[in-house]
Amino acid sequence: MSSLRLTDVEKIYPGGAHAVRGCSLEIADGEFLVLVGPSGCGKSTLLRMIAGLEEISSGEIRIGDRVVNDVAPKDRDIAMVFQNYALYPHKSARANLEFALKLRGIPKDERDRRIAEAARQLGIEELLDRRPGQMSGGQQQRVALGRALVRNPAAFLFDEPLSNLDAKLRHKTRGELKELHRRVATTSVYVTHDQEEAMTLGDRVVVMKDGLIQQVGPPLEVYRKPSNLFVATVIGAPAMNLVEGRITQDGGSFEGPDGLTLPLGSDRSGVEPGRRVTLGVRPQHLEPSADGMELAVRICEPLGDETDVMLDGPGGLDFTARLRLDEVPAAGLKMRLAPKPGTLHLFDTESGVRLG
Ligand SMILES: Nc1ncnc2c1ncn2[C@@H]1O[C@H](COP(=O)(O)OP(=O)(O)OP(=O)(O)O)[C@@H](O)[C@H]1O
Ligand SMILES: [Mg+2]
């Protein structure tokens, strides 16, 4: 096991794509760190640079105390798990697990012991004699995990390992992965574009955009205090409602289009009066209130106990609210909704940076 440290890591591909920009991160020994962000933001590039599968253009990568910039992938003591499993199709699961151990000259008894242990931990004992083509996607991904596990590496790197699985299996495997990490506590870096996966798996999450780190923190901190508008919309589902406007002259309220006014509450008094801001409120934080905004139901998505309600507001604004309702409201119904006290987010409209 090992810590990882990235210092000012850059990647410019030969064609000129600037995939990762000045990235610095410290990943503690035993930590589970999740990189999250939209397609093309540089997640896989960053992971592949840690693995040594991609050269870094500048900066430094350390695994434990060792600078590994010029260390070959096979000598970095890191195991990577990919989206497409990348198993040898003609080898049995056992042979897939055994291959890397053989390469490293690990004796037969020790190989057998490690394979049996990994198979037990992952519940794949009865699959060991099957080839990948004779297994489901979920089973193949377990074998791929097993192959990483038997090596007992300094760190695991995961690149969207669950994205080929259907929703139910993805959820189940996610839980198992978390459980596995709790037991083996190997330093892990996990890439996903799924914010829910990031929130539920990570000790900390790293939100990336266009090759730049936007925020690093524990999931709930990033959810509760997104550092900018980008993070606010990426983390949390449905996405946060955003309204452009300004702070009133008395500093106590937010004024949006068409006379939309929302009291800010005492905790927001720090933002200067008259300032142009973007107000954010999560769908989970809107609730029925007699003096709330008047909104008209456009469409509803019942989820069971809760319903996602899309609404039209003043000034052509859209809102989404996640509400506990006994019945699904009809399109056109008028509802009055207000943010729960203390749940508002304010951002500078120009820079997108969080205020307060
Ligand atoms: N081998 C390559 N040569 C040139 N450009 C590349 C190469 N690989 C990736 N890129 C570019 O680098 C940027 C980051 O790509 P990367 O694969 O790291 O993104 P990602 O965040 O993993 O996206 P996704 O969620 O789609 O997997 C993109 O603009 C991509 O087009
Ligand atoms: Mg990728």
Describe this structure in words.
The chain has 356 residues and is an alpha+beta fold. 24% of the residues lie in helices and 34% in strands. It has helices at 43-51, 93-103, 108-122, 137-150, 167-184, 195-201, 219-224, 229-234; strands at 4-12, 18-27, 32-36, 58-63, 66-67, 78-82, 155-159, 187-192, 204-209, 212-217, 241-247, 253-255, 261-263, 276-281, 286-302, 307-312, 318-323, 334-339, 345-348, 354-355. The strands form four sheets. A six-stranded mixed sheet has the order 6-7-8-3-9-10, with helices on both faces. Strand 19 and strand 20 (354-355) form a beta hairpin. Helix 3 crosses helix 4 (137-150). The longest helix has 18 residues, at 167-184. 37% of the residues are buried.
